[in-house]
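=== RUN LOG ===
request id: a7f3
mode: sequence -> structure
chains: 1
length: 118
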Amino acid sequence: MRRRICIVDHDLAGRGYLRECLEKEGYSVVTLEDGSQVRPYLQGGTFDAYILDIETPGVKEKEFLLDIKKTGQPRILLTVSKRGDAFLKEAMEMGVYGFLYKPFNPNEICTMVNYLLR
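=== RESULT ===
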């Protein structure tokens, strides 16, 4: 069974790039443009992992990450464009696995996701 990944990013190009990289690796990918769009998917444990852009509306909220953790699928990567955001430390304490820094490196994306889902 193919692993399912949810990408939440307000930037169409960023979503598309991540999707393309991960689909080439054989993952099934769903993309959303707002954190609020994830909520309907949380009930069924639909995804094996989440890749969330912290600049996307609805993502940079503690309750959002906690809701994902409650599904029993706390495999989360955050995409960030700058280092030093205070939210990153909080996110790690709440169980975020790691970060993908922009501009994206396709090898880094695949390595992080493959390790996360092994």
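=== NOTES ===
The two ends are 13 Å apart (CA to CA).
The longest helix spans residues 12-24.
=== END ===
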